[in-house]
Amino acid sequence: MASFHVIPDQELLIRLQKGDHAAFTKLYNKYWENLLSIAWNHTKDKCTAEDIVHEVFMALLREKNNFDILSVGAFLATKIKFAVFKHYRKQQRRERLAKTNLTFEKVSLDEEKLDALFLKEYIDGIIETLPEKCKMTFKYSRYAGLKNNEIAAKLSISEKGVEANLTRALKIIKHHLETSGLALILSAELLKRYNL
């Protein structure tokens, strides 16, 4: 009886970067169903969801050497959410072209709100992967608006520890934004709003 050998994702990524299409197939088979579910939950349309999943896997294959991937599942889920976001933006642009009575200011405001909503959802996803104290420090600072000394008291760490955790969280978030290309897409003003 042959033993079933599970190949770790990191090894599959290395093989994929060397051009091993079997590694790509294994990653696809492992993640496609979960990714389809995420895309469908956002779009409620099977064909659109399938197109988005296909697009994300093709991007992984095309740009396999351009990504610094720590977790394949988290990376692909984030790419799905970004692809859904792009789909909605494209759909909204089509709708706006059909409606001539919208003012430029209204269109700009709607796009900015959509950007802000997506950025918050994207950053929330990154934050959930941070080490616990780092995650709590960021949430207390950016979402609860607490000062460093208040955060230090809540987490029983020094103010320098708070600063170190904030610096680490911001560095990780910025890295994700840069490697995903979002730092180029989202406006500097919007990033500033989140103190990034």
Automatic annotation (TrEMBL):
Transmembrane segments: none annotated. The keyword Transcription applies. GO terms for biological process: DNA-templated transcription initiation. The keyword 4Fe-4S does not apply. Keywords: Sigma factor, Transcription, Transcription regulation. Residues 11-171 form the RNA polymerase sigma-70 ECF-like HTH domain. One of its GO terms (molecular function) is sigma factor activity. Belongs to the sigma-70 factor family. ECF subfamily. This is RNA polymerase sigma-70 factor, ECF subfamily. It comes from Chitinophaga costaii. The lineage of its organism: Bacteria, Pseudomonadati, Bacteroidota, Chitinophagia, Chitinophagales.
